[in-house]
Amino acid sequence: MSAAALAAPRRHATRNILVGAAVLLGLGMGLRQSLGLFLTPITRDLAVTATSFTLSIAIQNIVWGISQAPIGAIADRFGLRATMIAGAAIYVAGLVVMAAAHGAGALIFSGALIGIALSCTASSLVMTACARAVTEQNRSKVLGIVSAAGSLGTLMIPITTQSLLARHPWQIGALFFVLLAIAMLPAGFLAGGADRMPGRAGPKTTMRAVLGQAVRHRPFLVMSGAYFVCGLNLVFLTTHLPPYLAICGQNPILSAEAIAVIGAMNSVGSITAGWLGGRYPKHILLGLLYILRAFVFSAYFVFPPTPASTLLFAAAMGMLWLSVAPLVSGLVAEMFGTRYMATLLGIAFVMHQVGSSLGAWGGGVIFDHFGSYDHAWQIGVLVGFGAGVVQIVAGGPSPRRDRIAAPRLAPT
Q: Which residues, 6 or more positions from 74, have their beta carbon under 8 angstroms from its beta carbon?
């Protein structure tokens, strides 16, 4: 059989994996990043405080962070397909609980279920599937393209959701989310085809040995620590931008438009980051992203918001949003290969979710206490700038012992 004939089935399988991964990422993250639109109608209808609602978002992010590493290990051991499909089913269950909620307890339970579902369906496992499906030479570019395609969910979902919330009870919007989550089931099946790719077998190295190397690998530890700021700033923004704009007297549709603009510009930013990541040191690009986010936050929140400034801010943040995903995923693959990539991304993601939880819940606490978001965004700027500097200065593979401590662990 000719080489071309042998290559055709692999190309078809790769295409299915990448399409499934993009749909899974787009729906999962689009739903998650649109939950802040429910803050005002849910707190009004169920008579719960902003702190209670944001606590459910914080619990979601805590559970996501805590469960990501063990779920990554399960996926590395038993396969991505089964893990992704199970996660999509749990996502559906979590949104059903949210739609039927009558108080803070149900919202918190829903948040916990969605947190587990995100561990199975969001960027860590999706990026692992994509990294296994393509060659090392194309990896950074493909990770950027899939991240960009996945961001389309953030473009389309919030506008539709806000339109539903403006005309119907919030439960209708929640049921719309349920239908979208059901569509994640076939997407998980397609993306899980990465289990059959040749690179999955990997070398004869135990997970315990890989983890031992990771905890001694300075660039990995720095990257994981700096990842904290990504979650803090982004989840603070998606959760609290809608009520912030409402307080400032802006039309409620503006927050949905802003999130949609973020989703649109995500595509450009992710593709750009993937392209740059194949040409320049990824740890420096990551640090620059965090620093640029800090400047963009400062420029927006220091003045009263207007529709024009809000959409411009959303466009700038969109360029810097999911751009992190291809860079972090590419760094982990460079450091350790792809065999245990889901587990290692899960470990790094713990710090991301600590920041996410603090950004969601802490923003609500600060607002309830001070009646303003000023202190919240100021803290976010300081932490973001500091993390970017540390990532640039200490996140590179300069010492020879780092390269020895963490050799490439899987063929690519």
A: 83
Q: Which amino acid appears at position 158 of this protein?
A: P
Mean pLDDT of the chain: 84
Angstrom distances, CA of residue 40 to CA of 32, 52, 56, 242, 253: 16, 12, 14, 8, 13
Let me know the angle formed at the C-alpha of 147 by 145 and 153, rounded to the nearest 5 degrees. Answer: 115
Gyration radius of the chain over CA positions: 20
- Residue-wise pLDDT for 359-376, tens only, equals 878 888 888 888 888 888
Q: Residue 405: CB partners within 8 Å, gap ≥ 6?
A: 213, 216, 217
- Residue 326 tokens, joined: 């291809």
- CA 217 vs CA 2, 209, 213, 367: distances in Å: 44, 13, 6, 39
**Taking the model in full, what pTM does it have?**
0.73
Task: Please tell me whether residue 320 adopts helix, strand or coil conformation.
Answer: coil
What's residue 5's pLDDT? 44
Single-letter code of the amino acid located at 50: A
Q: Alpha-carbon distance 13 to 20, whole Å?
A: 11
DSSP state of 360: I
CATH 1.10.1040.50 applies to domain 12-405: no
CA 107 – CA 267 distance, rounded (Å): 31
